[in-house]
Specification:
Layout lengths: L1 H12 L21 H11 L6 E7 L1 E2 L11 E2 L6 H16 L7 E9 L7 H12 L3 E12 L6 H9 L4 E7 L3 H6 L6 H14 L3 E8 L6 H14 L3 E6 L21 H17 L3 E3 L3 E3 L4 H8 L3 E3 L2 E3 L6 E4 L4 E3 L3 E5 L3 H9 L5 E6 L2 H16 L1 E3 L6 H13 L3 E4 L2 E4 L7 H6 L3 H5 L12
Parallel strand pairs: 1-4, 1-13, 2-3, 4-5, 5-6, 6-7, 7-8
Antiparallel strand pairs: 8-10, 9-10, 11-12, 14-15, 15-16, 17-19, 18-19
Helix pairs in contact: 3-4, 3-11, 4-5, 5-7, 8-9
Amino acid sequence: MQNVHISSLISKYNIAVPRYTSYPTVPYWEDNISQNIWINSIKSNFKKEEGISLYIHLPFCESLCTYCGCNKRITKNHAVEQPYIETLLQEWKMYLALFPGKPTIKEIHLGGGTPTFFSAENLNYLISNILKSVFLVPEAELSVEVHPNYTTFEQLKALYDVGFRRLSVGIQDFDDKVQYLINRPQSFEQTQNIFEQARKIGYTSINADIIYGLPAQSLQTIKNTIEYIKILKPERIAFYSYAHVPWKVPAQRRYTEADLPQAQEKQALYELGRDLLKEAGYIDIGLDHFSLPQDSLYIASLNGTLHRNFMGYTTQTGNLLIGLGASSISDTGGAFMQNIKEVEAYQTAIQNGEFAIFKGHLLTKEDQLVRQYILDIMCNYQTVFEKDMSQEELEDHFYELEQDQLVIYKHPHLQVTELGKMFLRNIALQIDKRYWSKQENAQMFSKAI
């Protein structure tokens, strides 16, 4: 009977909905950011004692993974490395000029693309030059995304030498047919080699990315992949739902919808993966994430310091996130800004001494309050509403979710139930005022399941 109930909920709530790494979500930004507004927002939200998170986007890849929705540039020309790094450093100097003193860094993340497209020497050069201009807190978290096919011992060692202790290893699925369809051939042996090298060097935490809902995936491929994961024993796991958005990612047209698991099948993949991970000692955290109990992500979830931003879940709280590189997103707490996506145009803007603004949003007071409520839901499974939210309106929005046993709502308190944890995006959607006022943009998002 329980399975029938869950199946009906999946059918009901499998709608296009944001992932809520920000609020407002990008399609609802008002593009009201100019050079002066952005500069003023940086200056007014800089708090030296709070520290800065730094995201650096390295967009280059040697081959195209067809499922990937990230901003990337496919090339085998490594001559692009040095000019791009010099532009990143120039952009960072522009931010340094706005800070009243030497900034404190508590987090650096290299994302992509494939950050390990860059040579060991260039990665070391980039980070070393940034670290010369900052204070690095002792508990700072420095992490990098790696593709095992394009990662060497030398690169891992070069990053370790400048303070990196965390890796995020893309895996997705170890099945040959799935890997063929998503154009990501990657053997278990290659992946295991990266884990072993990283641990030998001294990395203390490794995250593995897995995706469910990929073309040709089945319960058996998920089971086999989790068996391999148990051998690798990463400290953290991101178990993401595949977002099928071929209108945004043309490469996803390599396969058809007929190749994809449908909603009920896809949910079965997730439930099997989740149960196997829990049996292996992992604890589910927030949306899509699992960790071993000794990992700092789980500890942060227990003590209420878990945070979520454009980089996903993090143990580092704070308002100021600076994004460097093409398409990267920055967040001051009061404003969002995304850089120009096209590499050459981004480089031209920075070389001309201007921030490479593509789009942005200046948050209203209401935006900031709703943002905090959604953050509480996504990180802590609960929130307490203030007077800005109408009790009558909230009761209307949460009535069905209460009937479906996804939440317990007793104004002003909202608590997500154990069953509701499967539907966090749908729960957050209920208080997304931008979404409800502009539903014509709803299909910009992937399905919840």
